[in-house]
Amino acid sequence: MQDDDFYELRIYETAQARWQGLSQQMGEDVPPLFRRHGFDVPLMHYEGVGGPFGPIYGYLLRWRNLDDRMRAWGAFYSDPEWIAKMTANYQGEQRVERAHIAFMRAAALWARYRGAGSADGGGLVDGIYELRRHDLSGQDRATAQAQVAGQLDAMQAAGGQILGVFETIIGAPVQRLVSVTAWRDVTALAAHGAADEPAGPPHDAFLLRPAPYGRARADFAPHPQP
Amino acid sequence: MTTWLDTTKRQLFELRFDMLAPGRAIADLRAWHLDSAPGRAAAGVPAPEGVWTVRLGSRGPGLVTLTRWPSLTDRQAALGAWLDTPAARGQLWDGARGLIRDAESWILIDSPAGAGRVGPATVAGGLHEMRLYRALNGSVAEAAQALADHDLAAAQEAGAQPTGLYEIAIGPERPLIAATFAWPPGVLPADVWLALDARADTGARRLAERARHRRRLIGLVEPILLQPVEAP
After folding, report:
1. Is A64 on the interface with B (CB under 8 A)?
2. Which domain CATH number covers A144?
3. CB contacts, 8 Å: B6 with chain A
4. How far apart are CA B140 and CA B4, in angstroms?
5. Does some domain include residue A1?
6. For chain A, how big is the Rg over CA atoms in Å?
7. Are residues A94 and A134 in the same domain?
8. Among residues A59, A48, A54, which one has the least CA distance to residue A13?
């Protein structure tokens, strides 16, 4: 399946104890504003429950054109309704400390997993998600990609559902694959031990809990606009 | 409370860091950059606004390239496609034989606060510097204006030419502001920044900023010392 879309991964480092207000705003205030300015429904919203740093909150967007993306964000940020709602929600203090934004494309490797976990036609995926950033830099690309495939195959065999595999192009360091795997629950995650992992390039990983309004569909299928 | 940047009315730049692979010489990367310029031009990549080697600082040793793009669609069609060619991939990334160990690509937008302060390098022979400033989220425009009014002004008083002031739109970290300078020969930039920090008015201004925001307006600063790459 040819996938020419761009994917925007946003990871917000949030201020301590101010995550919930941000999540509430993203779930209630933001969706109509996103619709107004031409955003698709984000493919997932999440909070971080493990990983290199925290607390974090984030989401994944899909774009067909990066210039449309720049225009949409510009219009969103300057929308008086957004400014009013954000100001009211923030109550004089920022909720987001730092933002990490990466543009990605679908990796060729994703085709290997598409369709494997969508028996119910792209239904919402429960559980917890494991987002890995595989570092292919300085290595033979074909070999490193094959090793990542081996690791994802092992996760899939252990009950993980591969939601997507991406390649970074702008923002994050390039030459990285980003994979998102859903686990039914923490027991399933723990059952796939690190010792079971085939060899592969170095990676870091975040453990994500999807927000109640932000569960992904299988294969990151688009959500319908409400 | 905030002034968000409108990314549609300003100029887009791509800042790319190519970090040298172990065992390779910076001269190899510099030569590759110069030798491959005709191929990039044929692919529609504009001549860069600036090319430097990292003399000292993070992401070094390596090459830093700043390119202006009319749109991100143009960027993808030109540089994105060229970087994905087997030749470029092979030369840059080919395992132990590749020129670079890692690379980062950021999208920058010129800051209106730099108008009247920044311009082409008018001094030659000294170091260049890129300073990356962590700004308070939601207050980027104010931080950029403070940098233009005070830091860029102090650099000019010391004989430097500020050559750019940018907000990072897409990058590994935001909010971040980048400023570039061309320093005159014999000047160590840190001496100018330390003198600025020691001024009473600087201290008073920062205290006022902190009282206003309950946080620092500008946090950590990361300086990268650079040397421009000139075409032979």
Report:
1. no
2. 3.30.70.100
3. 74, 77-78
4. 8
5. no
6. 18
7. no
8. A54
Domain match, A161 and A95 both? no
ipTM of the complex: 0.84
Tell me, what amino acid is at B110?
D
pLDDT (tens digit per residue) in A15-72: 887 878 899 899 999 999 999 999 999 999 999 999 998 899 999 999 999 999 999 9
| Domain span at A176 | 106-220
* CB proximity list for B193: less than 8 A, separation 6 or greater: B151, B154, B221, B223
Whether residue A115 is found in the same domain as residue A92: no
Q: Which of A40, A67, A102 is the last residue of a domain?
A: A102
Give per-residue pLDDT as tens, B72-125. Answer: 999 999 999 999 898 888 888 876 678 999 999 999 999 999 999 999 888 888
pTM, full prediction: 0.90
| Residue where a domain stops, chosen among A72, A102, A132 | A102
Peptide bond into B175 cis (omega under 30): yes
Side chain identity at residue A48, one-letter code: G
CB contact under 8 A, B7 and A175: no
Whether A32 is in a domain gets the answer yes
Is pLDDT at B6 greater than 50 in this prediction?
A: no
Put simply, whether B105 touches A (Cβ < 8 Å) is yes
Is residue A72 domain-shared with residue A127, that is, in the same domain? no
User: CB B93 to CB A137 under 8 A?
Assistant: yes
